[in-house]
């Protein structure tokens, strides 16, 4: 993991079909850029998942949040996780803590072995967020 400060977020890929993007997301060697403040709060779970999976990731702290970064983001909130294909041709923005945490858990095989287990895990996860 690398930590840095930046003012501009990566530009998500928009010129591909959802099937093409989904195929890129299935790759095992994707890299990640995680944007969040220097706080634990909503950022802790995603950091733990990335570390647990020994993912190739960089953490970036905003340097001019209100003036520069906030208007560039899908929902104008952090955390945001960018998932990059290894060749750099696909960049996907995962927004909102719960959504990106579920994405990481699914990618790293942590949502159980079947639909029942996934539902149980997500129910527990949802209850802990309330």
From TrEMBL:
Gene3D superfamilies: Glutaredoxin (3.40.30.10). SUPFAM superfamilies: Thioredoxin-like (SSF52833). PROSITE patterns: GST_NTER. Residues 30-112 form the GST N-terminal domain. InterPro entries: Glutathione_S-Trfase_N, Thioredoxin-like_sf. It comes from the Eukaryota. This is GST N-terminal domain-containing protein. It comes from Podila minutissima. The lineage of its organism: Eukaryota, Fungi, Fungi incertae sedis, Mucoromycota, Mortierellomycotina.
């Amino acid at each position: 993991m690398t930590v840095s400060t930046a003012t501009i977020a990566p530009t998500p890929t928009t010129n591909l079909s959802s099937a093409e993007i989904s195929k890129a997301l299935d790759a095992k060697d994707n890299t990640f850029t995680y944007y969040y403040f220097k706080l634990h709060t909503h950022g802790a779970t995603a950091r733990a998942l990335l570390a647990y999976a020994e993912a190739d990731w960089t953490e970036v702290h905003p340097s001019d949040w209100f003036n520069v970064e906030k208007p560039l983001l899908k929902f104008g909130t952090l955390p945001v996780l960018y998932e990059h294909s290894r060749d750099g041709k696909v960049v996907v923005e995962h927004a909102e803590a719960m959504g990106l945490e579920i994405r990481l858990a699914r990618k790293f095989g942590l949502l159980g072995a079947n639909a029942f287990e996934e539902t149980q895990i997500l129910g527990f996860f949802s209850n802990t967020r309330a």
